[in-house]
Amino acid sequence: MKAVIEAEAVGKTYGRGDGEVGLHRLSLELEQGRVLALLGPNGAGKTTAVRGLSTLLRFDRGNARVAGYDVSAQPKQVRQRIALVGQSAAVDEQLTAIQNLVLFARLRGLDRSAAMRRAQELTGQFGLTEAATRAVQGFSGGMRRRLDVAASMIVRPHVLFVDEPTTGLDPAARRDLWRALRSLVADGTAILLTTQYLEEADSLADDIILLDRGYAVAQGSADHLKSMVGPPVIQLHFQDEADAHRAIPLLQDVDPSATLDDTRTTITLHAEAENLTRSVQVLAGIVLPTEVTMRKPSLDEVFLTLTGHDTQAAEEKSA
Ligand SMILES: Nc1ncnc2c1ncn2[C@@H]1O[C@H](COP(=O)(O)OP(=O)(O)OP(=O)(O)O)[C@@H](O)[C@H]1O
Q1: Other beta carbons within 10 Å of 264
Q2: What is the pTM of this model?
Q3: In terms of DSSP bridges, do strands 207-212 and 35-39 run parallel, antiparallel, or are they unpaired?
Q4: What is the ipTM of this complex?
Q5: Which protein residues touch ligand 1 with a CB less than 6 Å away?
Q6: For residue 49, which of 74, 76, 28 has the smallest C-alpha distance?
Q7: CA dihedral sign of residues 140, 145, 146, 148
Q8: ∠ CA(55), CA(61), CA(67), 5° rounding?
Q9: Which entry of 29, 226, 243, 259 is 20 to 30 Å from 267 by CA?
C-alpha cells in the first residue's frame, strides 16, 4: 500500500525556540484507505501534529511528506491534496446544506451542474438527504459536523485530517459521524484523526499513537494498547459478604481467576462471553448477584499505566 503520510521525528517548540514544546519528536506512517488516530488529553500535542502535517504551521525539526510532497518545501502541493475538518464548522448558517455544498464545489472549480451533482451525492453519503434543503442554523451539532466533513470531500483528498470530530456530540450523533467517516475509508480515503476518546480511536482507527505532553508514549492497535492495561473484566456485585462467599467457589469453577475484591462483595472474572452465561447458570437458584457490570480499560487506565499519571494531571500540567 502507498504511504500518504510519512513523518520522521517531526516536532515543534513554540515561541523563539525557548517556549512551550508542542511536540517533541513524532514519527508516523499512514497508508491509503487506513485510519490513524492521535489519542491524548488536552495539551498532548495532537493539534500541533495535525497543523504541522497540514502545513498550517512549520515543524522546526524532522521531515514529513504528505501525498508525496514535503510539508516544508512544497506546502502548496500538499494543500491541494488534503482536507482538514476542525472543531468549528466552516459552513454558512443562513444557507441550506445543498447551497453550502454547491458553494464549496463552485469554489473548487466545478461547474453548476457538476457542483449540484456532487452536493447531492454528498448529502446522500452523509445522511443529510432529508435535511438538505433546510437552513444550517436549525441543524444539530452532529448534522453540522457531518456537513463540514461533506464539504471537505467535494474533491476527494488524499488525506483527510479530522481534529476531534465528535467532541461535544451525543452518542447517537457520534455514531452517525463514525459511519460517515468509515464510508470514506471504504472508498480509499486515508484519515488522520485526533481524539481524546479511546472508544473513538477504537471504533475508527487501525493504528493509534498515544500522545502525552508532546511525547508519543505508545503505538499500536486499540487491542494492543488495551492489552497493556489488562483484559476487560466482568464484575458481579452481591448483596453482602455471605452471598459473595457462597458464589466464589461456583465462579472459580467457571473461571479459576475469579477473585473477590476488597469490598468483599464484588467478584471479578475475565470478560469472555461464555464466562457470563456460565456464571448465570452456576449461580441460578443458589445466589444471584444484585448487579453485573462489564469493565473495559478506559483511556484513563491506559494512560495511567503507560505514563504513571492520569489524563487530568496531564491537562493541568499543560494548562
Ligand atoms: N500557539 C501556541 N503558542 C504557545 N504554546 C502553544 C501554542 N499552541 C499549543 N501550544 C502548547 O503546546 C502543547 C500542545 O498543544 P496542542 O494544542 O497541540 O495539544 P492538543 O493535544 O491538541 O490539545 P487539545 O485537545 O486541547 O486541542 C500545549 O502545552 C500547548 O499549551
Answers
A1: 13
A2: 0.80
A3: parallel
A4: 0.95
A5: 14, 19-20, 22, 40, 42-48, 318
A6: 28
A7: positive
A8: 40
A9: 226
Whether residue 318 has pLDDT greater than 70: no
pLDDT of 316 reads: 57
Gap from CA of 217 to ligand 1 centroid (Å)? 17
CA 310 – ligand 1 centroid, Å? 18
Radius of gyration, alpha carbons of the chain: 24
Q: Please give the Cα distance from 1 to 31 (Å, whole number).
A: 6
Burial class (CB in 10 A: 0-12, 13-18, 19+), 248: middle
Q: Which atom of ligand 1 is nearest to the CA of 40?
A: 21
- pLDDT tens digit sequence for 225-283: 887 877 788 999 999 999 999 999 999 999 999 999 888 999 999 888 899 999 999 99
Burial 274-297 (b: 16+ CB within 10 A, else e): ebbebbeebbeeebebeeeeeeeb
- How far apart CA 37 and CA 222 sit, in angstroms, is 10
Please tell me the distance between residue 44's alpha carbon and the centre of ligand 1 in angstroms. Answer: 7
Give the residue among 153, 134, 152, 136 at the shortest CA–CA distance from 144.
136
